[in-house]
Amino acid sequence: MSELMSDRAIDRSKMQVSDEVAIEINNMNKWYGSFHVLRDINLTVNRGERIVIAGPSGSGKSTLIRCLNALEEHQQGKIVVDGTELSNDLKNIDKIRSEVGMVFQHFNLFPHLTILENCTLAPIWVRKTPKKEAEERAMHFLEKVKIPDQAHKYPGMLSGGQQQRVAIARSLCMMPRIMLFDEPTSALDPEMIKEVLDTMIELAEEGMTMLCVTHEMGFARQVANRVIFMADGQIVEQNEPEEFFNNPKSERTQQFLSQILGH
Amino acid sequence: MSDTHAQTVAFVRETEIPPAPPPGRETGVYKWMRENLFSSIPNSVLTIVALALIYSLLSGTLPWLLNGVWNTSSLQECREVLDGQVGACFSVLTERWNQLLYGFKYPVEEYWRPNLALLLLLIALAPVLFFDLPRKLLAFTAVYPFIAFWLIWGGSILVPIVALLGFVAAGVVFQKYGKGSFAVGFFGGILAAIVVWNVGGFLIPEGASENAMLAAVPSRDLGGFMLNMMLGVTCVSLSVPLGIALALGRQSSMPLIKWICVVFIEFVRGVPLITLLFVASVMLSYFFPPDATVDLFLRVVIMITLFSSAYIAEVIRGGLAALPKGQYEAADSLGLDYPQAMRLIILPQALKISIPGIVNVAVGLFKDTTLVSVISMFDLLGMIRGPILASTEWNGVYWELLGFAAFLFFVVCYGISQYSQWLERRLATDHR
């Protein structure tokens, strides 16, 4: 675990949590058929917060963040993202999706488009940004994730870590106010995990609101200001990372932590 | 050896070894034959058997082909020229080429019109098939159907112009209202087109076709390979978009649309094309108003298009199913709406996967256009079976005529298949 921690000091000057609410979830429930996946979820995320969601597989953590941009539908309760309530209204959903960036476990880059086109597609078509401006912005973010020289290649020619950084850049090109990460490093080789985590740390340093489902506990310790532990579709425990790792309260959390930190 | 080597381990080369040519048996024809034709005893046997087969084929057909007679006016005359020798009577092709290509009623002095239409077709297809060409050429592709209609059928130029105006009106209405609500734009567009066509229909004076610039040619005078080409091109270009719509409809989350598409596809796929053609020629008029005379060509186009669009829909559905779910989710998560996600992300990839299948359907469809000969339309095969073989001059010339038909179809179908292979290579960007 420790070797995946960033070796540099993290600049916390801009990592401030404001009082403004970015995401509010009230009594949210979700079922797959008759299976109760998410049970009575209550969560408030303030702007600038960096939240890591951890838990055993099947605990509903991915489903939870996929509900936040309506990739999954919730059946009960209320979700308000960036002041807009998630309902069945397609206009609201498209509005929320364009404000919320999402990074997937399997990158999901568009293989028929170049890296640059991947990054400019949504700004041009959704935000109606002029092509030239969209390309400039894309190059800016590609430089930020340190792959500007790959801009004219196709995703299939890049390594997994590079692809995931492109996926982050693609989301950033929409200038989102919130970023969701759904196990962004789980499909990567260990040496590539670091380059993706470094990109995410940089993003956190700039004050981005982030919700991150991950098993990288080093990242959680360094960057998160809150760790949420889920099991069986419920939020079991949430706390600041220091307290969470050193002094877990619930038995389920202790068990989980001993399993992933034990070796 | 290692012992002797131990004493000479320090070694400095003093003379360069000049490059030498490989031994004779390792180069050229000899090597190629040894590796590819006679690499083992069974392979050598297979090579010899294949050579014998090719020899017997060529020794049978070559004399017939090379000794062909090209300039006689009847089978009897041809047989006299051949005088018992083996030889083909290709003179049926030189004598009846115009019937084979244009049918037996299309006015001879108007042959330039379908010829020009064919030439313009190549220009119109170029930007569709080769997308490196400037996109502005697509404007010509858009008006081409109306030009071709006017060239081939002739008559008043007002008819294709009104038809074009109808589509333009539909496009304008859709542009204006389609942004707010797709349904309003869509149905508004259809309504606008119908209004324009009806108003235009009243405005075209009676008998405008009588003394038009191009003499009117009725559909029943079309024939020969021209008819096959017309049916093939029209039906393929109509059934691909219709097939895409059906495939997307079948995936729709709206149950009504989904079930309409499923029932349509399953029904059409379960019926032989020849049945649909009989319906087109005999029964379809029951579905139109009593005094409406819907052109037989149009009826056949409708039926073949419906038939092949059902197949193309299934091919495209396979392409859609092959895309990982993540592509849909990524498009959604970026805020693209449904039409954008389909047009920019999903369809380009799904269609690429479906190219071999679509080409398969297109080639099959093109060959199936010969079935119209069964409902007494004189396409290439209809001309051969009907007017030419039934004539006293050429009764009995099967090989030459059917061989010619096979040759024409082969050239076109092989061209389509080569194009699709080029397209697949051109679109290969995933490097997996």
UniProtKB/TrEMBL annotation, chain A:
Family matches, as SUPFAM superfamilies: P-loop containing nucleoside triphosphate hydrolases
Record has Transmembrane helix as a keyword: no
GO MF: ABC-type amino acid transporter activity; ATP binding; ATP hydrolysis activity
Pfam families listed in its UniProt record: ABC_tran
Keywords of this entry: ATP-binding, Nucleotide-binding, Transport
Highest taxon of the lineage: Bacteria
SMART domains attached to this UniProt entry: AAA
Cited InterPro entries: AAA+_ATPase, ABC_ATPase_HisP-typ, ABC_transporter-like_ATP-bd, ABC_transporter-like_CS, MetN_ABC_transporter-like, P-loop_NTPase
CDD domains (alphabetical): ABC_HisP_GlnQ
Domain ABC transporter, first and last residues per copy: 23-257
Family under the similarity heading: Belongs to the ABC transporter superfamily.
Protein name per UniProt: Glutamine transport ATP-binding protein GlnQ
Native source species: Phaeobacter italicus
